[in-house]
Specification:
With 193 residues, this protein is an alpha/beta fold. Helices cover 42% and strands 18% of the residues. It has 7 helices and 7 strands. The protein has helices spanning 6-16, 36-52, 69-80, 94-104, 114-123, 149-162, 166-172; strands at residues 21-27, 30-35, 60-64, 84-88, 108-111, 132-135, 146-148. The strands form 2 sheets. It has a 5-stranded parallel beta sheet with strand order 4-3-5-6-7, with helices on both faces.
Length: 193
């Protein structure tokens, strides 16, 4: 079956297998699971929340985070909006992080935690295009342009109650030829490319 875009493929899977386990993750030493229906709801809420922050089709959104379920949820949410995911290796130095954020013209940066956010703070004065920072784990972060991923999802959930067809309409606007992601090299021999 041919899908129009990656987001359509994701939501079709959530619709066709709502009760199947879509992801397992470890929390407090125990494996937990989420069904595709639960994942689809979380991604929809994040996507609508991103739209409320101004993320539109074609915008670049950076993810500076370790591998996690939230990383994947944010990626699908970005794709739902027709925006472009630009992942950054969490091991990169602040100067390389700044280069990628600026080169990709990202207006929003999703950050895993305080440790990664401290790298952003080191170079924040050189990031004129960034409008907001979204913290997956906001503990210890106080910043006037930072919001938690939970807040973004809650805003999106409230919006979707008033606009239940928003996700379907957003996904329908994304074309097969639209850019989905920009992946940079690690920059070990110079600036990331």
């Amino acid at each position: 079956m041919g899908y129009q875009n990656l987001a359509e493929m994701f939501y079709t899977t959530c619709q066709n297998y709502p009760e199947k386990v879509g992801v397992m993750y470890k929390s407090d030493g125990q494996y937990q699971s989420l069904t595709f229906a639960e994942i689809g709801k979380q991604v929809s809420n994040i996507s609508a929340g991103l739209a409320q922050l101004g993320v539109q089709k074609g915008d670049n959104v950076v993810i500076l985070a370790e591998n996690s379920k939230e990383w994947a949820f944010c990626d699908y949410a970005i794709l739902t909006n027709g925006a472009v995911t630009t992942p950054i290796y969490p091991t990169l130095l602040p100067k390389d992080i700044a280069y990628i954020i600026n080169d990709s013209q990202a207006k929003l940066v999703i950050v895993s935690n305080q440790l990664q956010f401290e790298k952003i703070l080191e170079v924040e004065s050189s990031l004129p295009g960034v409008e907001k920072y979204i913290l997956i784990d906001p503990e210890g972060v106080k910043h006037d342009r930072a919001v938690s991923l939970a807040e973004v999802a809650a805003t999106g959930e409230a919006f979707l109650k008033e606009h239940p067809d928003w996700v379907k309409n957003a996904v329908a606007k994304v074309q097969r030829e639209d850019l989905a992601t920009i992946i940079y090299t690690s920059g070990t021999t110079g600036e990331p490319k």
